[in-house]
Amino acid sequence: MSQPSFTNFILKRPWLHRWILPIAKWHANASGYRQLGLRYDDLIPEESETVQLALKRLPPKEAYDRVFRLRRAFQCSIAHQLLPKEQQTPPEQDYPYLLPIIQEIEAESRERDDLESMSVKKRETHNHK
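RE: above sequence
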């Protein structure tokens, strides 16, 4: 599920972070999902098993809020309208809520694969007389 990310590379270089941040903010505003009341993690496709499992692990309130945001955005899309400014998602409320759970599930899966592929070898015992 996770795509390669340059986030850590950029964050470790303050000069690059200062240069990229205005572009990132512009891109987030230009994409328009906040104007429909959505958060970035609402845009993650639900087709993979990992995302399905992550959605099941969401707290009930967060799951309800997500469904509400998606339905409201769908209604706005059908009506070809944007939400009023006070109902749009402000940048400070657009934080990841699903991605950390997805990353946790992927880490668990990698660990499970490593454990399943591990081979146990019996130690040879040497009899010293």
